C-alpha cells in the first residue's frame, strides 16, 4: 500500500487508546518516538453505554 503525505515527527511519547467494540474491550498505553508500543492495560467496557449526551438525538 502506498502512503501519501509525510508521517509526523514525534519528539516525546504519547498515549494511545484503542476501543474494540466487537470484543467489548479497550486497551491503552504509550507509543515512543522510535515506534515502540507499551501496552499499559486492557479494560472490559460496555459499548452500549451512552458516552456523550446529544440533545438533538432521537432516542
Can you walk me through this structure?
- The protein is an all-beta fold.
- The protein has a domain at 23-47.
- It has no helices and three strands.
- It has strands at 14-20, 25-31, 37-44.
- A three-stranded antiparallel β-sheet has the order 1-2-3, with no helix packed on it.
- Strand 1 and strand 2 (25-31) form a beta hairpin.
- The chain starts with 13 loop residues before the first strand and ends in a 15-residue tail after the last strand.
List the helices and strands and how they pair.
Elements: E1 14-20, E2 25-31, E3 37-44
Antiparallel strand pairs: 1-2, 2-3
The biggest beta sheet, please? 3 strands, antiparallel
N- to C-terminal separation?
Answer: 41 Å
Question: Which percent range describes the beta-strand content?
Answer: 35-45%
Spatial strand sequence of the major β-sheet: 1-2-3
Which stretches are poorly predicted, pLDDT < 50 over at least 5 residues? none
Q: What is the number of helical segments per DSSP (H or I, 4+ residues)?
A: 0
Helix vs. strand class: mainly beta
Q: H/E element string?
A: EEE
Q: What is the mean predicted local confidence, pLDDT?
A: 84
Total E-strand runs: 3
Helix content: under 10%
Radius of gyration: 16 Å
Amino acid at each position: 500500500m502506498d502512503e501519501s503525505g509525510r508521517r509526523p515527527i514525534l519528539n516525546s511519547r504519547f498515549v494511545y487508546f484503542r476501543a474494540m467494540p466487537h470484543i467489548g474491550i479497550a486497551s491503552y498505553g504509550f507509543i515512543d518516538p522510535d515506534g515502540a508500543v507499551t501496552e499499559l492495560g486492557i479494560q472490559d467496557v460496555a459499548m452500549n453505554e451512552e458516552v456523550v449526551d446529544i440533545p438533538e438525538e432521537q432516542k
